[in-house]
Amino acid sequence: MVTTAQTGKTFEQLLDEIGKDYKQTQSELKEVDLLIQQTTSEVERLSQRNTQVTNKLRQVEASLDTVPREDIREAYVAVSDTQQRLFTMRGQLEKLQSNQRSLTRYLDRLHSVLDVADQAQYGSRGAGEDGDEAAGAGGPLQPLAVRIIEAQERERQRLSRQMHDGPAQSLTNLILQAEICERLFDTDADRARTELVNLKNAVAGTFQKVKGFILNLRPMMLDDLGVVPTLRRYVDGFAENSEIVTNLTITGKERRLEPHKEVAIFRLIQELLNNAAEYAHASSIQISLDLGDDLARVSVEDNGSGFELTEALTSPDADRLGLAVTRERVEMLGGRIHFDSSVGRGTRVSLELPI
User: Fold this and answer.
1) Do 317 and 237 fall within a single domain?
2) Does one domain contain both 4 and 136?
3) What pTM does this model have?
4) Above 80 in pLDDT, residue 226?
5) What's the rounded Cα separation, in Å, for the pair 135 and 252?
6) What is the pLDDT of residues 31-57, one digit of tens each?
7) Across the beta sheet with 295-302, what order do the strands follow?
8) Whether residues 70 and 146 fall in one domain
């Protein structure tokens, strides 16, 4: 017969093994993250190289009658070699990113097991017992804090990818265009002027992208004018950039709220809009904000693909969508949130925050 002490010892051994596996997976994930960074840098370098050799090939093709055959052959070989290497590195990057997602999902499952074990082990202890000591030490994994930190890191990674694929790549192209203009000044003034016009338009487009990133990171209007004017401007920009029909309705008494409440309302709506665009592929979004005397009521409804609510809130997709963290943030502020969704029927999220 297995005694209670033996059962407890087996349970502790199992938790210890899971904890070691969790740390090992964290270490493997960090290694994959590093490889992704290195591979991304190589892909970026090859992309720049590809742009250079492609531009050179175009110049060669424009002067086929005067360029030596050997130079023509070298230009074509350089493009073929660079594109083949770029294709290979992009394939490697996709594989690493797939491994990263798999490790992240596995890490989330291990974390969920440790979270449940943590609650089972410490949740039943009364105040003044070991439970207080565990709380004071932060507990084995500090579940809520870990989730929030992981959500923040995912957001940073998303912004990093957007910066790399957007402004960073655009700036690389601007440098190449400037070099082309510089070479053309002495040989073809008309074409140089055309390239300068293209360069000016490209700079203006990059500037708008950078402004969009700044707005996403921290709208200055939020501190100066408050959440209502900031939301109006943000929703207009979101509708224009995403080409999603997005309507915002404000009711109640428009006024300034406590700074952390304004930030919370803005970030919650921002996250729900991003989910509707990125995951639900919605074509229409309706947003309402009602500022009552005691409560701020927010509703965000889209006509996207929707999801199975129970599965989304308990599966690794919950972290991908940010649903669990969103709910915990609202509850930390003393509010309530309700999700209403099903596959093919869109999603409606409504929440209340005390103000």
Assistant:
1) yes
2) yes
3) 0.47
4) yes
5) 41
6) 888 888 888 888 888 888 888 888 888
7) 245-252, 284-291, 295-302, 347-354, 336-341
8) no
